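=== Structural record ===
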Amino acid sequence: MPEDLAKKLNNCTTKGYVIAPAGYGKTHLIALSVLVSSRRQLILTHTFAGVSSIKSKMTTLGISTEKYHVDTIASWSLRLCLSYPKTSGWVTENPTNKQWNMLYECCSKLLSKEFVRHIVTATYAGVYVDEYQDCSNSQHSLVCALSEFLPTRILGDPMQAIFDFDDGKPVNWDASVYPNFSCLGQLETPWRWEKAGEPDLGAWLKEARNKIEQGQKVDLHGERPRSVVYVYTGSEYLAAKQYSSLCELLDHNESVIALHGGDPLSKSKSHLLARTMAGRFSSIEEVEGKDLHIFINKLEAAKSVQAGFLLALEFAKKCFTGVGKALTAGTKRGEVAKKTKGTKYPLLLQAANSYLNQPTSRNLKAFFLELRDNPETSAYRRDLLYRFLNVLRMHVEYEGMTLSETANLYQREMRHAGRPISHRKLIGTTLLVKGLEYDHAVILDADVLDAKHLYVAMTRGSKSLTIISTGRFLPGK
């Protein structure tokens, strides 16, 4: 029973782990454990979306905020090091990607200081670390430093360890976790599918997980529940099958995630398919928003208004289909064009001319809003589009900041608030949606996924799973 395991976690006085497969109620278990605790607990995870999810579960169960503090490992470590800069040797308030491992090393050393340990133990009675499979080796060392003086319980699923880090692969459970942490238990019930009214799907996924974990193959010709759809295709027809399978899922209001793998080409394949679908499915951006920041840096460096506008048009084509059809020939050349009897969209022409005459963020935002509302165009990278619109909005509101400074500020705020997109039909990669839940999942190229990426993809949909494959056995690799 979850309640019994929650008590076991709470009573742990050393360090231990729980294996928590996808959709088995890990967040609920953490909340139940905090509920039965007598003193404040520190709960660490990796993303602000994870922080929000845990806080939401605590609120649902009516747990007082006095009993816990939830934070990302990154934010908690940074705040602690900045509180004692002389001792920690850390003064950088906004670390870059390559600096985070150095921060974790500084924090681990800081936690060896007796006065710091006294402060931490006076504040918290124990530690929970969520999604432990996503820890880097440097984060693992930090957790080990905490475990030397606080009860530490880690929860995760080695089958979902799909991230790579600057210092190598994710923490190796066989080498670093199992020998040093005690097993406190394993979650056994696939609650995600039970609650969705699809217990047969949950049972099938549980059996598939056991096979994949043991290095065996899942036979797609074998017995499957009705909620598991197997679409067999030859490689030459793969794109057509992907398109038709997604079209079949357009006629309802439930959420759908279509998934490519986590290889470097998958992001571009996701954008291309979303474009092919004419925006009926929208592709997801990575959290860092590299394409947005690259464009903004180029826009600020443009030598002329015309050059900047032409850059904006190229960026618009990354967000919309049909941009060329909606614009006049002069606008496409970056010129202030005259309205004629043949001008099809005068409001769009006016918005373009306004920016060319006065290149402000307000006018650029108005131009992109006209593109969004134009009948010739369809947004297929809504995530990218709405991030850009939010940056422009903030730049109008916050005087004295450059556009790139505003983009960096927005990036920091978005990490807390989450993605600005609420579209129900999405295309993404396993790396971008791990930990998230949708009604229906479609694996677009199941053959190319390795065991862990396959398992992550298979467990995203609570009501159905569609597998498009050129072979009958998975994983194909």
Q: What stands out?
A: The chain has a mean pLDDT of 94. The longest helix spans residues 382-397. The chain is about 50% helix and 15% strand. Residues 268 and 283 are 10 Å apart (CA to CA).
